[in-house]
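Troubleshooting entry. The earlier prediction with uracil gave an output that would not parse, so I re-checked the input for stray whitespace and re-submitted. Clean input:
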Amino acid sequence: MSPPDLLFSQGFGTRRICAGLVQQGLVKIDTGSGLQLVDEDLDITPLEGMSYEVQGVLWQFHTKAYILLNKPAGTECSHKPSVWPSVYSLLPAPLRQRPAKTGLQGVQAVGRLDQDTTGILLLSDDGQFIHRMSSPKHHVPKLYELTTSDALDDKVCQKLLAGVVLNDDPQPVKAAACEQVGTHQLHLTLTEGKYHQVKRMLGAVGHKVVGLHRSRIGGLVLPADVLPGQWRWLGQGDLSALA
Ligand code: URA
């Protein structure tokens, strides 16, 4: 693979732009002996995690992108947000521009969180991964930490674990786990991802959610050092924890 092809695969723009970056001496690649300026026609076999630099910014090569974002409140999980800024605006351009053979360009969110929900959001350009993580068949547990406007009644977990009926489906939905951690706070684990599921489930038992944070997906806990609005690559260990 030539350096322009490598940059193209990682989302640095059209092949012409990528060739221009290399020709202008703005690209260094570590093919084994440290970061070095490269020629346009060098032949590279990029390894997962290989370092390279574009316009002074250090990157790692990733065949597929798996990203964790700590979603801040007041952002929409949509490419065309209606009111709030898009979560995609928190990511650097190459992640949004990675070429796709089919479907949409760049990384896509795995499911959606509401505008006012905070916490762990996964994004990827691996269609199979997105499908696996979001499919209700796979039952990936997600932990939500929520706050209600009024004090919770002490049967709330019992009711949510037994199942409640939401307005769009007669089939009851059940919490996979539930723990009351304060007068107004619950930790709720769900394995499906229905529209506004947490808020609607709490609504069904007479409570209004005023704060919602997703702190874990599968075995992957939102890392404390990824602050709201920040993102990081997921490594092999993180991906295994998700499965
Ligand atoms: N359930 C909700 O009601 N909102 C979210 O953002 C996620 C789960």
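This one parsed fine. The chain is about 20% helix and 30% strand.
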